[in-house]
Amino acid sequence: MKLIVAVDENWGIGNKGQLLVSIPADHKMFRKETLGKVVVLGRKTLETFPQGQPLDNRTNIILSRKKDYSVRNALIVHDRDELLKAVEKYDTNDVYIIGGASVYEQFLDLCDTAIVTHLDREYVADAFIPNLDKSDDWMLETESEEQVYFDTTYTFRVYKRK
């Protein structure tokens, strides 16, 4: 499995249920990377999407503790075991963990690749993921040249599990 995320200097990923910043090139990379693939996300993350609807042209698997939760065009699972069973039929390279923080936390140990948009600034954040730069389990494999969007400098990074 892979994870895909945008993080700030402190590995913050969101604040009050929203992304820290919206960068068109990041959205374009995310779309290119996940189109036709399987995306795994939490219910709260789904509810931040336009009209709270699953992403088009992807298999959406929503993790929710609510037993009666349903969403059109998405598979609902309720725990880690149920999710693992649901993704058995897919190539693990085609399964992307896309958030939020609790979903990243639950499945980070199963991911072998992390695609990270690293924002070179600090935002006010209330949701975080572990800093892969400080982890003995991960190594930075590639990093793009610096990009700039208004006052935000960022890079696209790929980390691999050691």
Summarize model confidence as the mean pLDDT: 97
What is the tally of beta strands?
12
What is the count of DSSP helices, taking H or I runs of 4+ residues? 4
Low-confidence stretches: none
**What is the N-to-C order of secondary-structure elements (H for helix, E for strand)?**
EEEHEHEEHEHEEEEE
What fraction of the residues are assigned to beta strands by DSSP?
A: 35-45%
Measured on Cα atoms, how large is the radius of gyration? 15 Å
CATH superfamily: Dihydrofolate Reductase, subunit A
Looking at the chains present, what oligomeric state does this protein adopt?
single chain
Termini, distance in Å? 14 Å
How would you classify the helix and strand content by structural class? alpha/beta
Would you write up a description of this structure?
- The protein is α/β, with parallel strands linked by helices and 162 residues long.
- The protein has a single domain (2-161), classed as 3-Layer(aba) Sandwich (Dihydrofolate Reductase, subunit A).
- Helices cover 19% and strands 36% of the residues.
- The protein has four helices and twelve strands.
Highlighted features:
162 residues; alpha/beta; Dihydrofolate Reductase, subunit A; nine-stranded mixed β-sheet; three-stranded antiparallel β-sheet; globular
Draw up the topology in text.
Layout: E1 2-7, E2 12-15, E3 18-19, H1 24-34, E4 38-42, H2 43-46, E5 59-63, E6 75-77, H3 80-87, E7 95-99, H4 101-107, E8 113-119, E9 127-128, E10 138-143, E11 147-149, E12 152-161
Parallel strand pairs: 1-7, 1-8, 4-5, 4-7, 5-6
Antiparallel strand pairs: 2-3, 2-9, 8-12, 10-12, 11-12
